[in-house]
Each structure stands twice: as C-alpha cells, then as structure tokens.
Amino acid sequence: MTFEDKLEALANLTVRVGNNLQTGQRLYIRAPLETAPFVRLVARAAYQAGAKFVEVLWADDALMRERLRHSSEANLTEVSEVYFGAREAVVAQGDAYLSILADDPAALEAEDGERVGTVMRAIGARGRPSLQAFGAGAVNWSIVANAVPAWAERIFPDLEPAAALEKLWNAIFTCSRVDQPDPIAAWTAHLDALEGRRSLLNTFSLTALEFTAPGTNLHVGLPALHRWEGGSGRTKSGIRYVPNIPTEEVFTCPDRNNVNGTARASKPLSYSGKVIEGIEMTFEGGRVTHASATRNEDALHKLLETDDGARYLGEVALVASSSPVAQTGLLFQETLFDENAACHIALGRAYQFTLNGGLEMDTPSFMAAGGNDSQIHVDWMIGTPDMTVTGIQKDGSRVALLEAGEWVF
Questions:
Q1: How far apart are the first and last CA of the chain?
Q2: Please, which pLDDT band fits residue 327 given cuts at 50, 70 and 90?
Q3: Domains in the chain: how many in total?
Q4: Is residue 181, in this structure, part of any structural domain at all?
Q5: Do 118 and 203 belong together in one domain?
Q6: pLDDT of 55
Q7: Radius of gyration of the chain (CA)
Q8: In angstroms, rounded to a whole number, what is the distance separating the alpha carbons of residues 56 and 78?
Q9: Which of 38, 186, 201, 396 is 20 to 30 A distant from 102 in Cα terms?
C-alpha cells in the first residue's frame, strides 16, 4: 500500500468504524490546520456514506500561544462559544462528531504554567455538559490522529524532519490497523475481542483489583455498581462507534475511597506541555498521600492541587503489553496512544457511565456510590511486561486477569 492508500484507508475507517456515520447525519469535525488534506478525505468518505453535511472548525496551537503570552489575566477564562455551541448542537440534533489529534505535545511547554492551567480549567468546565452527553450515548463520536512535523520531531529528535514524519505516520497506520489487508475486518475482530473481555469481566463479582510489578503494589477497590467498558460504544439509538482510534483498553470506575498502596509510572506523562518522568505515588484510603517525580515534579504537584478530587482515582484500565501501541516501543506523548500501551490509572473525574445507573445520579449520589469528581481526568501508565493483575471476588476468591502483562483469557 502506498502512503496515499493508507491515508485514504484511515479516512474511510474513521467514517465507517470510528464514527459509523449514518445516512442523513451531519458530521462536525474539529481539526488542526495542518490536517486539511486528511480532513478532505474524511469529508469525501462521509459524503459517500450519505452525510447530510460536513462542517469543520479549525484549531491552531500558535493562536493558543499568542493568547497565553498577550491576553490579560482577566480574559483567560473566556472560551469559544462557537466551538462549544457547535458541540451542544451536535448533541441536540443527534449528529456525529470527530476530533482529529495532531498537536505538538510540547506546544505549551515554554508557557506560564499558571496561565495554561487557568485556560484549561475554563475549557474543561465549559465543555463538561457536552462531554457528559457524549458519554451518555447522545452522539457517535471519535478521535483519530494525524502526524504533523512538530509532533514527529518531538518523538524522533535525531531524525531528519521528513524521516521523522514518515516514521510517525507509519506508527499511526500500524496502531490504527490500516496497514492490514482489510482494516475494517481487522477492527471488527479487534472490537469483538475487547467486548468479549469486558463482558466476561462484568460477569465476575469483583470487589477489587491488585496490581503487582516492580515499584507497584496497588490495591484498587471497585464499587458495587462498577461496570466495565472499552472498545466500542453505542448511542442511545443503537449506533456502534469507536471513541478512540486506536483503542486497546477495557476500563472501569475505581472506588474513590478504597485505593491503597504504591504505584510507579512505566512511561512518562505528557501534561499541559510538560513531560513528567519517574512518577511514584502512595495512596491511603483512596487519596494520594505522597507523590514524586524525577523530572518536572512541580508540574505533578500542581496537577494534584487542581482540586480535592485530583488526588483520587477516576479510572482503572487493563491493557495487554502486546498491544500494537506498546509494540512500537514509542512514547507518543499523547494520551490517545500512550494509554493504549499499558495498564493505567487516571487521577480525577470518573466517567458516570462506568457505574450502573451512574448517568442518572447527581454528583453527591455518584460520589456516595464510589465515583470521583474533579475538573481533571489524567491517565498515567503503570503497566509493564512483568505486571500481574488479580481480581478479588465477593467471596474472597482470586481470579487471574493478566500475567506477565498479558490477558489470561
């Protein structure tokens, strides 16, 4: 397959599997300027699939930097009503939504961390209603990645720019399975496998998970109402879609107040333009009581100080070490990829759909049931090729879930 063939295959996969666009739906796309060629291919595939209309809102890292450097402090909490209004319209009209990830992971690294945090918190707060609606199945939505020079050069600093870009594209194609003879068939089989695992996990009566690896000895309690998710989602009208391309995880809600032990990061965390390395945390009664890092530790502590919920977990996810993302051996510095390379936990907000009945709960009820609330949701990786994950059932019996980093079943 040529590069052009793979790019067209990725666009077709995005529309047919990621969004699973239905005839008569509108498709709304959020995309960086550099991804225009891919966006045009997606639009073509969407119209061929029967889209009523395709609309694009362009994004630009450089514009964000200008704002951070020159906007008054008072105006940093302003947000785009065009963007969030469009997301709310997508929800109201039952349309489809696509986000194209192609950012420079270090785009904001040189900017003032306090100002970056102010902007990100404002964006998170304004976007929360539509994000919750997405999670509740109102929209068939997806995220897919494109390679751009700044991202490629960040990952492959020793290569010439053209070679770095080619290598990143090839990694994206591999992780997205578009270099296979029939990408859609490959994705169908992959999603069926993930859904089989989450269905089996949901038949167990698990009360906790135990993670064991060098530097990690972590007990993660699970709420009585927890529900495993992962792979594909379904809208309220029954449309099967894939929120993330790639996706390798099955995940659920931890018990906010029942996490104890130590966890060591197996990969650096890229957050708000900072790469945080060597993370280690201690949990007592669910709360982070000690946190350290070998690089950018101050950024880690600022993250934990976002609000009270930032020191508690909102997600626990299982990923095999043999996932295509892990097999690339790369640190992508983008959560969309890095979280699909290893088992991980997330600080901050829990997804309400990971508790049975959670979508109908108000925040106090959700937290009383074991969920967590916060302005942030930040995944960081703890899985290793020698990790063991064991499930504890209500009767005290133990069931092996992962051994040597791989699924037992």
A1: 34
A2: very high
A3: 2
A4: no
A5: no
A6: 96
A7: 20
A8: 21
A9: 186
Mean pLDDT calculated for residue range 143-166: 96
Same domain, 267 and 369: yes
116 and 58 assigned to the same domain: yes
Q: Determine how many CB atoms are found less than 10 A away from the CB of residue 152.
A: 22
The answer on pLDDT for 133 being more than 90 is no
208 in the same domain as 90: no
Token couple for 46: 């969407």
Is 238 inside a domain boundary?
Answer: no
Share of the chain above pLDDT 70, in %: 100
Query: What is residue 33's DSSP assignment?
Result: G
The pLDDT tens digits for 240-249 are 999 999 999 9
The answer on 204 and 139 residing in a single domain is no
Burial class (CB in 10 A: 0-12, 13-18, 19+), 75: exposed
User: In which domain, by residue range, is 42 found?
Assistant: 3-175
Report residue 136's pLDDT band, with 50, 70 and 90 as the boundaries.
confident
Helix (H, G, I), strand (E, B), or coil: what is residue 383? coil
The distance from CA 392 to its chain's CA centroid, rounded to whole angstroms, is 26
- Across the beta sheet with 206-213, what order do the strands follow? 287-292, 280-284, 259-264, 216-221, 206-213, 388-393, 398-403, 406-407
Among left, alpha and beta (phi > 0; psi -120 to 50; other), residue 21 is beta
pLDDT for residue 335 is more than 90: no
* CB-side neighbour CA atoms (13 Å) of 257: 6
- Please tell me whether residues 363 and 216 are part of one structural domain: yes
Residue 187, in any domain of the structure: no
